[in-house]
Design a protein that fits this description.
The chain is built from 3 helices and no strands. The chain is mainly α and 190 residues long.
């Protein structure tokens, strides 16, 4: 790294700051009184002290500050790198979460379609079973109706036969004579 205190603009800035500092400390310029060598000596000594202090700062403190700032820069760069890695890890996790969400939505749609398909199949099975049961019930009902009709016909025949026999029994004695009766009995035995 380039030493910041050995750059010309930085050195000029430090010297200018020192001069400005000395001017502020200079006693009032409009002071009246005897001009003696002491005030000039004081100003020269201040300049010499400033030069010594500036040289000390540039030569001794400068490398220490440069080392400190370079360590700070290295530390900050490592922190930036660490934060960048953490950001990348978080971005990766966010992307994984988005992918997982997309996969979950796809899976949810798949499950939903399978449930609907199973429901439709179950519905069709129930309808088919209901149709089969209704056909079976209709067949049983028809069979019962047919049986009742057969029984009713049988009962009707029986009643008609009974009525016919009853009528015949009422009429036969008047129509069949004793002789007809013997002939029928003989005919039966032969």
């Amino acid at each position: 790294m380039n030493n910041i205190f050995f750059n010309k603009p930085v050195q000029v800035s430090l010297v200018s700051a020192g001069i400005f500092f000395l001017i502020l400390l200079q006693p009032a310029w409009a002071e009246e009184g005897a001009r003696e060598w002491r005030p000039i000596y004081d100003v020269i000594m201040r300049w010499i002290n400033f030069g010594i202090m500036a040289a000390f700062l540039v030569k001794v403190v400068g490398p220490i500050l440069v080392k400190f700032f370079s360590e700070q820069q290295t530390d900050i760069q490592s922190r930036i790198t660490q934060v960048t890695r953490q950001k990348e890890a978080i971005d990766t996790k966010v992307q994984e979460a988005k992918d997982s969400l997309d996969t979950s939505e796809t899976r949810l749609e798949d499950i939903k379609s399978r449930i609907i398909e199973r429901g439709e199949q179950r519905k069709q099975e129930i309808i088919d079973k209901a149709i089969e049961q209704s056909q079976l019930m209709m067949k049983h009902a028809k069979d019962r109706i047919d049986n009742q009709i057969i029984k009713a016909r049988q009962n009707l025949k029986n009643e008609m036969v009974d009525m016919a026999i009853e009528k015949a029994m009422e009429r036969l004695p008047t129509v069949i004579t004793e002789e007809d009766n013997r002939r029928l009995v003989n005919q039966y035995f032969t």
